[in-house]
Every structure is written in C-alpha cells, then in structure tokens.
C-alpha cells in the first residue's frame, strides 16, 4: 500500500518600493492548485520582509491540522513555485558635470561645475559630492564624480541606498 503526498501550491504577493528605511512586507496569499483533505484546516503566515535595497522571496510558513488538531503538514507536497518577490529600489538622484576644453599648454584642466537636477535625500541624510576629473595631456576624459551619502546623526554610510545618475 502506498499513500502519496497531497499536492498544494501557494502563491504569495509581490511588492516594490523605493528605499525609505522602513521594512517592506506583503501580506496575502492564495492556494493556486490543490486542496486540503476533508476535515483539515490550515494556518498560513506570510514571512517575507526586506528593509535594505535589494530583493527577497516573500516566503510563508504553513501548518495543516486535522479535526483533532494534529499536525498533518508532512502529508502534503507544498510547492512555493509562485512565491512573490519583495524589492526595495534605491533612491535616485540626478546630477550633471561641466565640460571644459583648451589647447595643450602642459597644465592640468579641471572643471568643478556640478549641477543638481532632481531627486531627494531622505531626512537626516547628507551628500558629499564633487568632480574629480583632471587631464593634462592631449585627449579627453569623463569629468568623473566622487560622492558619499551618510546619516548626519549616526555618521553611518548610506550610499548603498541611493543610485546616483550623472550626465557627464
């Protein structure tokens, strides 16, 4: 005699937001295929959470019980193939650098012009940003930018929470 596991597929939701320092969760689920055996009930807890920039699966825990309260979860083949994704995107900031040109004279050429275009830092965050491009010999280079973002209260680096877009 052989009793096989009862198939059950559960789908959790997906969610996305821009980084704001708070956790992202997405409650809710649905059983997309399969059923419970007669007189059985389930409790599903959606467990996915993310606070930092990146993505993670929106997982779940499930307990299936019979009418007497006995755990029968092991009798099911529970698929999480349709588990949602939680994503926190970085805050985007936009800047442009200045250009400069001259005939070779043996001295460095720099241009420290940097223009803020759009985007907003989170409260208590501060940015240090400046151009670092310099050239002496004939040719051309991109007027590169150095930047660092930190929390003004804790002094912790917050740069990974931002995407800096530079129009060179």
Describe this structure in words.
This protein has strands spanning 6-12, 15-18, 29-34, 41-46, 54-58, 60-65, 76-82, 84-89, 91-97, 114-118, 125-131, 145-151, 162-167. The chain has 168 residues and is an all-beta fold. The strands form five sheets. The chain has a three-stranded mixed sheet, with no helix packed on it. It has a three-stranded mixed sheet with strand order 2-8-5, with no helix packed on it. The radius of gyration is 27 Å and the shape is elongated. The chain starts with 5 loop residues before the first strand and ends with a strand. The mean pLDDT is 96.
Write the layout of secondary structure elements.
Layout: E1 6-12, E2 15-18, E3 29-34, E4 41-46, E5 54-58, E6 60-65, E7 76-82, E8 84-89, E9 91-97, E10 114-118, E11 125-131, E12 145-151, E13 162-167
Parallel strand pairs: 1-7, 2-8, 9-13
Antiparallel strand pairs: 1-3, 4-6, 5-8, 9-10, 11-12
Short description:
By secondary structure, the chain is mainly β.
Which key features would you list for this structure?
3-stranded mixed beta sheet; 168 residues; mainly beta
Largest sheet: 3 strands, mixed
- What low-confidence regions span 5 or more consecutive residues with pLDDT below 50? none
Overall average pLDDT: 96
Distance between the termini: 72 Å
> What general outline do the C-alpha atoms trace?
elongated
Number of strands: 13
